[in-house]
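Quick start: read one record
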Amino acid sequence: MSAKTTTARLTPRERFARGLKYSTVGPYDITRGAVGITAGTVGSSVGWLRDQYRSGKLREDLETAQEVVATELAAAQEVISNLPQAFQEARRSKRRPRPIVLVAAGLGVLAVGAVTFSIVRRSMRPEPSTLPPSVEVTPRP
């Protein structure tokens, strides 16, 4: 009795499934199966795109897209050509605050700080007692 083995070619999907099933040839089959599936998908997509282009739908879409891109580029060129003028206008419109306003603001901050300091200092002092001292303080010579 002799066993004949047929060497049928595996499809990418079968090879991928076999690679997941067996651990010895797994990585090889998984890689080869995934590449085969990807190639088949890409081939199918290219065929579909070719058919769409030939039928004219994609051609019309591409022409519309080209027109939109051309319009946008023209608008961008106009904006870029007007940039120097826009920069000059932006520089002119900036006003610096007058020095008197800055000095007044600084003095106001200093006044508020001085008032706050005096209030905090007064609150830190103990209030004098109305009772006479129990020990008399004698000045040192």
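The mean pLDDT is 77.
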